[in-house]
Amino acid sequence: FNVGLENILADGASVLLFRDFLKGTFSSENLAFIVEVENFKDLWVQGAEDGFIKKRADEIFAKYFQNTSSYELNVPGPLLEELKEKMKAPNTTTFNRVQQSIFKLVQADSYPRFIKTKAFQDHWTESKKKKERQRKHKATERSPQER
Question: Is 34 exposed, middle or buried (0-12, 13-18, 19+ CB in 10 A)?
Fold first, then answer.
């Protein structure tokens, strides 16, 4: 299957399937972090105030980077130190480098194993068929003037 990780992350049902797969490999926190940071980045676009952005950044940091967290991510020491420095004045780009690092890890490790599973292959094949049916249905709905 020639499906990029980005395509999986853009499809809600695929994300859920991938999350379930990652739970079985005890690495679902990686995907959770990637998705949570994507939502965090949208805060600025949505017009969130700086105080709210700082609060969410603190929550994300506590969830994934404190020693007491059950979702603690394993990131290289220098990257963690860089993140701690950025947390002094967080904004919606604060987690970008860590997110890129985790994304590369998932892309190199979990993702190749996931796309080889029968569950994913069946889901993706059915998803493509459904999209093709929808495309054909829309094409037949157009009026003669539109054709």
Answer: buried
Q: How far is CA 141 from the centre of its chain?
A: 35
CA 45 to chain centre: 18
C-alpha–C-alpha distance, residues 97 and 103, integer Å: 10
Amino acid identity, position 89: A
98 φ/ψ angles, rounded to the nearest 5 degrees: -70, -40
- For residues 121, 127, 130, 132, the Cα torsion angle rounded to the nearest 10 degrees is -90
CB 42 within 8 A of CB 52: no
pLDDT digit string, tens, across residues 35-74: 999 999 998 888 889 999 999 999 999 999 998 888 999 8
What's the CA gap between 60 and 30, in Å, rounded? Answer: 13
Q: How does DSSP assign 99-114, residue by residue? A: HHHHHHHHHHTHHHHH
The model's pTM is 0.79
